[in-house]
Amino acid sequence: MFAPTLLATLDAVCETGSFDLAAARVGVTPSAVSQRMKALAEAAGGALFVRLGPAEPTALGRRLLRHAREMAALDAALAADLGQEGAPPALAIAINADSLETWAVPALAAVEGLRFDVVIDDQDHSADLLRRGEVSAAVTAQTRPLPGCDAYPLGALRYLAACSPGFRDRWFPDGPDAAALARAPTLRFNPKDALQTRWIRQVTGEAINPPAHSLPATSPLQAALRAGLAWGVNPEGLMRPDLEAGHLVELIPGATLETPLTWQVSRVMADVLAPLTRAMRRAARDGM
């Protein structure tokens, strides 16, 4: 339906961020790049970019970009089977920050012949990226296979709720009961992060939304807990060294939160991503 030259040019624009750099990559003039993007937009029936400088694709543009990269990956796989060499394609995959911080990176490093465009998104929402066609695979909390996808259980990532000793003494002098948890500030990755409210519901049976700071980075979030900014929920593997050193204390010792994770892969890309699927399952088994 879409000419390969148009898709390759879209990939170049998104990869380089500009029509000028894309033109140099694909070997045409910037005017030709503009004409190709106009033709692709007309064929697809919508705008491809939110803005230019750097180029930021629309939802339609991201869907076409995924298609372009999947086609390039399939071509590269065929070329490899035929003994031909070429530049590895980039494939968009979604992984939550805690998995990247604790176990997933070795899986990426174990795979040769592919480049990864990693989208960081909450495990409760990454399935939406697959549904919209913006990524080819995702680590997600969705256990049932999405339409057109294969699902592989990875195990459960274990979380602990903790804070600094000083924060505990200030906010939880009588323990973390429902009233105290409703007042004490917590720390979340971003507004999508529901781990704190899930933990509260698990230990109190109540739906409480405490005041929250947002800090979209796992390691700085851990540092903020040590500094006493708030209480928070982080993977046990990240919490344990600070707990053993006395920098943090558990709010309720032994009250862990288990988050099952699943690796979902588009069936169109299942063969190309098979080495990554094996590596992700192995890394999850060893790292979680």
Structure explained in plain terms:
It holds the Pfam family HTH_1. InterPro entries: ArgP, LTTR, LysR_HTH_N, LysR_subst-bd, WH-like_DNA-bd_sf, WH_DNA-bd_sf. Residues 4-58 form the HTH lysR-type domain. Belongs to the LysR transcriptional regulatory family. This is Putative HTH-type transcriptional regulator. This protein has 288 residues and is of the alpha/beta class. Among the domains are: 1-63, Winged helix-like DNA-binding domain superfamily/Winged helix DNA-binding domain (Arc Repressor Mutant, subunit A); 157-259, D-Maltodextrin-Binding Protein, domain 2, CATH 3.40.190.10. The protein is built from twelve helices and eleven strands. It has helices spanning 4-16, 19-26, 30-44, 59-81, 97-109, 126-131, 165-171, 178-183, 195-204, 218-227, 236-245, 274-287, and strands at residues 49-51, 56-57, 90-95, 115-120, 137-140, 149-163, 186-188, 212-214, 231-235, 249-250, 257-266. Strands 3, 4, 5, 6, 7, 8, 9, 10 and 11 form a nine-stranded mixed sheet that branches. Strands 1-2 form a two-stranded antiparallel sheet. A hairpin with a 4-residue loop joins strand 1 (49-51) and strand 2 (56-57). Helix 1 packs across helix 2 and helix 2 packs across helix 3 (30-44). It is elongated and about 70 Å long. The two termini are 43 Å apart. The mean pLDDT is 90.
